[in-house]
Structure formats: C-alpha cells, structure tokens
Design goal:
Shape: globular
Structural class: alpha/beta
CATH topology of the largest domain: Aspartate Aminotransferase, domain 2
CATH class of the largest domain: Alpha Beta
Number of helices: 16
Number of domains: 2
Largest sheet: 7 strands, mixed
Strand order of the largest sheet: 2-10-9-8-7-3-4
Helix content: 40-55%
Number of strands: 13
Strand content: 5-15%
Bound molecules: pyridoxal-5'-phosphate
Distance between the termini: 55 Å
Radius of gyration: 22 Å
Length: 412
C-alpha cells in the first residue's frame, strides 16, 4: 500500500479551553472544579436551559405551520430585525433612518468571520489584506485566528489590561489608537471583556470614540455577553449605541450563546450600520455571496427561539428575567469569593473580583500558581489566570478560596 497522502500533515495543538474541559472530565478527584469553560452553570454546577427557552421550544414543536425548508441566505428576517433591535435599541436613529442591515450567523464566531471576510474583500479598497486589524491585549483567543483565516496579514494588539493596576490601561489604548494608521480596524468588546472582565466606563468610551472618529478607525464590536455584564440589556449595549449616535459606520457581531443559553444551536447576528440604506444594501448583497459559499444558509431552530422570544412583550420580559437570574448569580459569586479571600488574608488586593463584570474574572494568578491549582487542587482554569465565575457554587466556594489562598502564599 502506498503511504497516506496525509503523512505530512502536522498535528495542530488542541484548543486550550476545550482541552481543559477534557482534562477536567478525566480527573477522578471528587473535589474537582471546572473554572475554564465559558458557559453558565447553576448553583448545582449544571447547564441551564432557560425556562423561557423551554417554553418557546414547546411552542415551536406544536406549531404545525413551521417546516424545515431552507431559510433565506441572510437568515430568518424576524430574527435579524429583532436581534439588531436589541443591540441598537428601540429608538436607534440608525434603525429609524433605515440604514442598518443584518446577517444571521453561526454564533458570534460566524458573525465575526463573515464580517472579517467582508472587510478583507471590500473595506477600504478591494482585497484588502494589508489593513491593520487591532485586537485588545489580551483578548478572546479566537479573534486573532478568525482575522488571520479571513486573510488579514497585519494583526496587531492594542494596550488594554494593566496587570499592575488590575484594570484598564486607558492611556495605552488611546495612544495605540492615535498611532494606528487611518482606517485600521479595531475589534472592541461591547461589554464584559473576555478575558479580563474589565470594560471602559461611559466616559472612557467617549474618549475612545473621539479618537476613533478623528483617526478614521473602524469599530467592529463583538457583543457576546449582552445582559450578562450588568443584568440589563440596555446598560450592556451602551457603548455600541453611543458609537451609533456619534454617526459611526460599524459592525456588531452578536452571540446568543450565553444570554439565551443556546450554545450548541449556533445563533448569532452581524449588524451592519451604514450611512444610508443604499450603502447597507450593497454591503448585504456582498455578504450574501460570502454566506453562500460558507454555510449557504443558516439553521433555523435557535433563530426561531430567539425571534419568538424577542418579538413577544411577555416572552421578552420573561427572558430578561432569566438573564438577570444568571447575571445575579455571577455577581453573588464575585462578592462571595472576594469576601472569602479577604477574610483569609490572602496576600494582594481582591477588589478587582467584584469590580470586573461578566462571566470571567482575571484573577492575577500567574502560570505557576495556575499549574498548582490544576495539579494539586483539581481546579481547572486558563493559564492566563482567567476563571469563569459560573463554575463557582455555594458548595465549592470555600474550597476554591482556600486553594487560591494556598497557591498565592506557597507559589510565587
Ligand atoms: C468575546 C467572545 N466573542 C465571541 C464568542 C463566540 O460566541 P459563539 O459561541 O456564539 O460563537 C465568544 C465565546 O466565548 C466570546 O467570548
């Protein structure tokens, strides 16, 4: 037999966060805790099907008018319109002026990918691989790969996290924007920055927008946690809405994985805000071409769930209540962890645990301390020191706090 034609294929490294979960599953220790994966867990450490989602799924199952025909290439119209509406707000000037459009996508990742592909083909001239794309340091690790795979050659980082201060490096960020070539693309986390849990304040966003406007920088918002940061959809969309009110043309990638708990249904939306309807329609016509060769047309189940929920005032209210349940549990775990570390007298300051928002917290644990947590304590977290607050429960808080205390005091 001839040798395989795949002999020369190198083995790619595993995706860190999925590898961590696989290691966690294999760990037989009863004390084990998974603080790695980016998904909500109840206080019983279980995945949560939102009650409103369960209800709407049953409505869909009982609706004999529905079928499994292909959706349009750009997706379910009522999903797209409602998804963009919650990002931009009911009285968005851009919606009123009919200068927005959207593309249903396979999760937030799909929205980023379609947006990136479009920008590479059409933004600021054709086949535009040389435009710098700026990603926060640090960021969700997939941002870099999505833009590389879309063909961008000049991916850069912008200052974001000040490790010493355990907060936002606003000056570093603004300096990088001042220095960036005009028309550079900036990926901005709309809220609940992953992995640091640190967002600019409204006043800081205003400063960021002012520089971006003056320097002709393109904002590409990634909104994966609307509702999760504060419990309020409006508060968490403040930055995107402010940029729209300032007249920016922008993209906003939305994920409904977290705020609807629809991780495996792959529900996302890419909102395009342009100067006028004509520009937006031409952009969408090109996006349709990209979708056609990527997934041809999107799946319907998740989009139907979201569209049905968002278009009924009663279901919408129930959903907001469900989102608040999740956000409140995260906030409670933050204050409980902080108070335990402070009463243990763990060296360092721990106010950042409650000041950070969203699912994640950047603990400040260094890679050796993380290794200690995993190897000795069976507590799984990312090498960066990022923990998912939803992995904490009233039952494991004491154990996690004591383990962090030990890691910080024993390992430098
Ligand atoms: C910042 C950020 N963007 C995008 C995504 C992707 O979301 P989805 O799972 O819907 O593709 C995630 C998921 O973890 C994320 O944290």
């Amino acid at each position: 037999m001839a040798a395989s034609i795949f002999t020369a294929v190198p083995r790619a490294p595993p995706v860190a966060v999925f590898k961590l979960t696989a290691d966690f599953r294999e760990d037989g220790d009863a004390r084990k805790v998974n603080l790695g994966v980016g998904a909500y867990r109840t206080d019983e450490c279980q995945p949560w099907v939102l009650p409103v989602v369960k209800k709407v799924e049953q409505m869909i199952a009982n609706d004999n008018s529905l079928n499994h025909e292909y959706l349009p290439i750009l997706g379910l119209p009522e999903f797209r319109a409602n998804a963009s509406r919650i990002a931009l707000g009911d009285d968005s000037p851009a919606i009123k002026e009919n200068r927005i459009g959207s593309v249903q996508s396979l999760g937030g990742t799909g929205a980023l990918r379609i947006g990136a592909e479009f920008l590479r083909r059409w933004y600021n001239g054709n086949n535009n691989t040389a435009t710098p794309v700026y990603i926060s340091a640090p960021s969700w690790e997939n941002h870099n790969s999505v833009f590389v795979d879309a063909g961008f050659k000049d991916i850069r980082t912008y200052h974001y996290w000040d490790a010493a201060k355990r907060g936002l490096d606003l000056q570093g960020l603004l300096d990088d924007m001042e220095k960036a070539p005009e028309f550079s693309i900036f990926i901005l986390h709309a809220c609940a920055h992953n992995p640091t849990g640190t967002d600019p304040t409204p006043d800081q966003w205003k400063q960021i927008a002012a520089v971006m406007k003056r320097r002709f920088l393109f904002p590409f918002f990634d909104s994966a946690y609307q509702g999760f940061a504060s419990g309020s959809l409006d508060k968490d969309a403040w930055a995107v809405r402010y940029f729209v009110s300032e007249g920016f043309e922008l993209f906003c990638a939305q994920s409904f994985s977290k705020n609807f708990g629809l991780y495996n249904e792959r529900v996302g939306n890419l909102t395009v805000v342009g100067k006028d309807a004509d520009n937006v329609q031409r952009v969408l016509s090109q996006m349709e071409k990209i979708v056609r060769t990527t997934w041809s047309n999107p799946p319907s189940q998740g989009a139907r769930i979201v569209a049905t929920t968002l278009s009924s005032p009663q279901l919408f209210a129930e959903w907001k209540d469900n989102v608040k349940t999740m956000a409140d549990r995260v906030l409670l775990m933050r204050s409980e962890l902080r108070s335990r570390l402070e009463s243990l007298g763990t060296p360092g300051t721990w106010n950042h645990i409650t000041e950070q928002i969203g699912m994640f917290s950047f603990t400040g644990l260094n890679p050796k301390q993380v290794e200690y947590m995993i190897k000795e304590k069976h507590i799984y977290l990312m090498a960066s020191g990022r923990i998912n607050m939803c992995g904490l429960t009233t039952k494991n808080l004491d154990y996690v706090a004591k383990s962090i205390h030990e890691a910080v005091t024993k390992i430098q």
